[in-house]
């Protein structure tokens, strides 16, 4: 049973490369799907766009909007739901998932409520949670489809999104701990007054643009309160996150 007290933190957990190893097989397949989708969107209806054109668009939209999808929606009339559905189609998702043992025990040990906060779509993230047996450990499951502010999509690292989440769930930033692999998301959370935990074991130097924020070196920035290799290290670092 989860330990919940009045002063217990509220944990906001990312999913990909935080609770499981998405870099192993899922991210490469997702990147291939994304490139094929962008090539079709940028093509002339018969011939897909070139690899150079696809890479340029993906990089530009990721840097400008924080998510390639938002650029496609804004400039090419793409429907977000269609993009998410097409790019997250996998032949056998469960065979692609790699994760540590003991995650359920970890979530039970951490005092306080847990909320899943993922830029991944609902159908995909629920499949991953069910495979890992973690779905019952989260009081709320916030996927990218519900990350809207004033009817506009605002996925992480949007501060507008995080403020809306605080209001909706009656939280104060100082009670919250964001557990993430992506530094840009941790930076936004820290700026609002949240505690931050950076999970590094699944990161690869030069992670593909549009899927993760690449890091040259895994040096802990000032806005990261705790750097851990694995989420399983969180209980031992709890005193730094109070």
UniProtKB/TrEMBL annotation:
UniProt keyword annotations, A-Z: Hydrolase
Coiled-coil ranges (or none): none
Pfam families: Hydrolase (PF00702)
Gene Ontology MF terms: hydrolase activity
Taxonomic superkingdom: Bacteria
TM stretches of this protein: none
Protein name: Hydrolase of the HAD superfamily
Organism of origin: Duganella violaceipulchra
């Amino acid at each position: 049973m989860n330990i919940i007290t009045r002063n217990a933190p509220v944990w906001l957990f990312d999913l990909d490369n935080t609770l499981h190893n998405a870099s192993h097989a899922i991210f490469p397949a997702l990147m291939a799907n994304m490139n094929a989708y962008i090539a079709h969107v940028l093509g002339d209806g018969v011939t897909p766009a070139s690899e150079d054109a696809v890479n340029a668009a993906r990089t530009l939209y990721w840097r400008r909007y924080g998510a390639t999808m938002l650029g496609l929606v804004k400039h090419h009339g793409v429907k977000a739901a269609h993009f998410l559905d097409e790019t997250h189609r996998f032949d056998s998702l469960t065979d692609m998932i790699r994760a540590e043992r003991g995650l359920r025990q970890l979530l039970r040990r951490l005092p306080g409520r847990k909320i899943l906060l993922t830029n991944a779509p609902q159908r995909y993230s629920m499949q991953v949670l069910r495979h890992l047996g973690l779905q019952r450990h989260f009081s709320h499951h916030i996927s990218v489809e519900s990350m809207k502010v004033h009817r506009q999509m605002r996925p992480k690292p949007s501060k507008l999104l995080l403020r809306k989440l605080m209001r909706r769930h009656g939280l104060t930033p100082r009670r919250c701990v964001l557990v993430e692999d992506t530094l840009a998301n941790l930076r936004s959370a820290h700026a609002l007054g949240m505690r931050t935990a950076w999970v590094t074991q699944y990161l690869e130097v030069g992670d593909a643009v549009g899927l993760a924020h690449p890091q040259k070196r895994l040096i802990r920035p000032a806005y990261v309160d705790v750097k851990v290799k694995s989420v399983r290290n969180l209980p031992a670092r709890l005193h730094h996150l109070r």
